[in-house]
Design brief:
The complex is a heterodimer of chains A (339) and B (304). Chain A contains 15 helices and two strands. By secondary structure, chain A is mostly helical. Chain A has one domain: ABC transporter involved in vitamin B12 uptake, BtuC (Orthogonal Bundle). The radius of gyration of chain A is 20 Å and the shape is globular. In chain B, 69% of the residues lie in helices and 4% in strands. Chain B is built from twelve helices and four strands; from the N terminus they run H-H-H-H-E-E-H-H-H-H-H-H-E-E-H-H. In chain B, a hairpin with a 2-residue loop joins strand 1 (133-136) and strand 2 (139-142). Classes of the chains: A mainly alpha (339), B mainly alpha (304). The A-B interface holds A 65, 111-112, 114-115, 117-119, 121-123, 125-127, 129-130, 133-134, 136-137, 241, 245, 252, 282-283, 285-286, 288-293, 296-297, 300, 329-332 and B 37, 85, 88, 90, 92, 94-98, 100-102, 104-109, 111-113, 115-116, 223, 227, 230-231, 234, 270, 272-273, 275-276, 278-280, 282-283, 286-287, 290.
Chain lengths: 339, 304
């Protein structure tokens, strides 16, 4: 009678326990007194991973690829900055950053979700560019010269780290809950065939708006957390087209449509980005371009797909060929036709 | 606000429209035949500008001739790109996200390879023509813009002739109208796609070289024009060359006259907000006229 079935195999146990072990490890990590650089690297990685997981909600689950998430990241950063300047508690400011981003996502979504597929994608590119231009010209935020957060408290790397980790955990938890819920099923139905989903009683327009708002709120919170630690930011940075690209690349690299793919993509991206950015400022985008081409041509399921393939090879037995998530997002068709 | 001033602005807008049309047309043929939104277009524009720049600096070839030389060079380059990347994409009669992301990845590669070669500095092509104006009575326009306009219009006319009068153009039109029926009557889809991609790339390189004569450029140079190209081809209904010309005129007029509109004595669109005009227009047009401006005049029937 109980709805919760005990995990039947070792694999399921691992899947249930591993996230908690990971979280515990990350929470205990500052006890080991790591160096400032390591803390910074982990912090940035956690922020990027949050945005990656959030993007995956809209792009992976609902199949609506957006180039425009930089808007929410930037809005979160600016809202947090302005509110902290007015003397608000930083954590309340993060939440407000999320709310502002969610409201913006509804305003953007109302017109753009009337468009489908690539037309939606193109519209999101236009929205990002327009928002950055406008933010460059608003006086109260310092326009294009940027905004500085002055905090009276001393800099505390551990606190920043914990906020970022909590944000990641929140994003992953929300994603997992949505993935297993009726709402998640509705999103997947929209991805596979929007018209068929509408026929069986899903309201695609409303569902997309809802998931867009949830994703935007998470990205807004991440933007606020980033802004507080960076203490200085400008529209050419947080609202940049490149920020939007990065947020999109992470889940594509990791594996579109799976929560852990997005996490994996975010972690790898964050680590590599920080290292490469310091040493070779331009090489990372070149690498991501190449990676994107290779992934699209050879392994649309990303690293998760690659791992799955490796495991199949290792076990020498053909199981259920796994998700066709990426197929549906990228090629616009289900798993029946094959690749 | 007097008449001469207004006419001068109008001339400037039309000259701009010619360039805009030339830069968008490559994108529209590729979209029409293959239904690929070519984000790498920005990269091709940028490479076109550097192509003319290098020819001018090293071999002292006039940038106008450089632009003409870009046509065959980029034609071959485009066919290479098609052979290497694009032909592996699945066929579809609506644009797929795979194609979008693939071309986007390729754009990133082009852009960052260019950063390696030319660095981040602003480059420009300076010829004696660059700053000399052409004066006719009270009207004046920069000479280089007039030349670029003439070159752009000639190239559009040539393309229109290829499109309407040659067998290759006929197979392109057939594929645009109905890819399945076209293949049934014997149009070679693969070959036409390859040539079309080459053609689109050639015109992108050509337009990039022309734009390089007017504006200074960096490896990131194509992005602003990429979004304008989107707006123009969407305005033009995505698949027709004359539609592109119409879209270019509309966008150029809006960008030129928009900042001049006063409301209660204040400019409602300061110059710095000008880039937002095209992006705003893009969203509005996608929403209210997804078939482009042409849908206002004709009811187009398509077999599906």
């Amino acid at each position: 009678m109980t709805p919760v079935r005990p995990p039947s195999s070792a694999g399921k146990w691992v899947k249930m326990v591993l996230p908690w072990l990971l979280l515990a490890g990350l929470l205990l990590l500052p006890l080991g007194n790591p160096s400032g650089n390591v803390m910074k690297l982990l912090f940035i990685t956690a922020v990027w991973t949050t945005t990656s997981v959030a993007w995956n909600l809209l792009g992976g689950m609902a199949g609506q690829v957006s180039f425009g998430f930089a808007v929410f990241f930037g809005l979160g950063a600016y809202t947090t900055g302005l509110l902290m300047h007015m003397g608000w508690n930083p954590y309340l400011s993060f939440l407000d950053g999320g709310i502002v981003a969610a409201v913006a996502s509804v305003l953007i979504g109302l017109p753009t979700f009337r468009l489908r597929g690539p037309y939606f994608v193109i519209a999101t590119i236009g929205v990002t560019e327009a928002v950055r231009v406008i933010m460059n010209n608003i006086d109260i935020t310092g326009g294009s010269s940027g905004y500085r957060i002055l905090e009276s408290k001393p800099f505390n790397a551990v606190e920043h780290y914990y906020t970022a980790i909590i944000a990641v955990a929140l994003a992953v938890a929300i994603s997992s809950v949505i993935a297993g819920s009726r709402f998640g099923l509705a999103l997947r139905a929209i991805k596979q065939d929007q018209d068929a989903a509408a026929d069986i009683g899903v309201n695609p327009y409303f569902a997309k708006l809802k998931v867009h708002a949830i994703a935007a709120a998470l990205v807004g919170i991440a933007g606020g957390i980033y802004a507080r630690r960076a203490a200085f930011f400008y529209p050419g940075d947080v609202f940049a087209f490149n920020t939007g690209i990065s947020i999109l690349l992470m889940p594509v690299i990791g594996g579109i449509g799976t929560v852990w793919g997005a996490v994996l993509g975010g972690v790898i991206f964050g680590m590599v980005q920080e290292q490469l950015d310091a040493n070779f400022p331009n090489i990372h985008l070149l690498l991501y371009g190449l990676l994107l081409i290779l992934i699209i041509l050879f392994e649309p399921d990303g690293l998760v797909g690659l791992l799955r393939r490796a495991r199949r090879l290792f076990r020498r037995r053909r199981e259920n060929p796994g998700s066709k998530n990426a197929d549906q997002v990228l090629w616009g068709r289900g798993g029946i036709a094959g690749r | 606000m007097n008449l001469v001033w207004g006419l001068n602005l109008l001339i400037a807008a039309l000259l701009l429209a010619g360039i805009y049309a030339a830069m968008s047309v490559g994108m529209t043929v590729i979209y029409g035949v293959m239904k690929i939104v070519n984000l790498a277009h920005a990269g091709f524009l940028m490479l076109g500008a550097y192509f003319a720049y290098e020819l001018f600096n090293r071999l002292h070839i006039d940038p106008l001739l450089g632009a003409v030389l870009a046509l065959p060079a980029f034609f071959v380059f485009g066919m290479g790109v098609h052979w290497l990347l694009v032909r592996w994409l699945p066929k579809s009669d609506t644009p797929t996200l795979a194609s979008l992301l693939l071309m986007f990845g390729f754009w990133l590669v082009l852009q960052n390879v260019a950063y390696f070669i030319w660095g981040n500095d602003d480059r420009s092509i300076n010829t004696p023509r660059t700053n000399s104006p052409v004066n006719i009575g009270e009207f004046s326009a920069p000479e280089v813009r007039v030349i670029v306009f003439v070159a752009a219009v000639i190239c559009l006319v040539v393309l229109q002739l290829i499109f309407n009068r040659s067998w290759f153009g006929r197979s392109m039109r057939a594929l645009i109208q109905n890819p399945y029926a076209a293949q049934i009557v014997g149009v070679d889809d693969a070959r036409t796609s390859r040539l079309t991609f080459g053609l689109g790339t050639a015109f992108a390189g050509f337009a990039g070289a022309l734009l390089g004569m007017i504006y200074s450029f960096t490896p990131d140079y194509g992005r602003q024009f990429l979004l304008r190209s989107f707006v123009i081809i969407v305005l033009g209904g995505l698949e027709s060359i004359s539609g592109v010309a119409l879209g270019a005129v509309v966008l150029a007029l809006l960008e030129t006259f928009g900042p001049q509109i006063k409301y209660h004595g204040e400019y409602i669109l300061p110059d710095s907000l000008q880039p937002a005009v095209s992006f705003g227009l893009l969203v509005v047009v996608l929403l209210i006229m997804p078939k482009g401006l042409a849908s206002l005049f004709t009811t187009k029937r398509r077999l599906t």
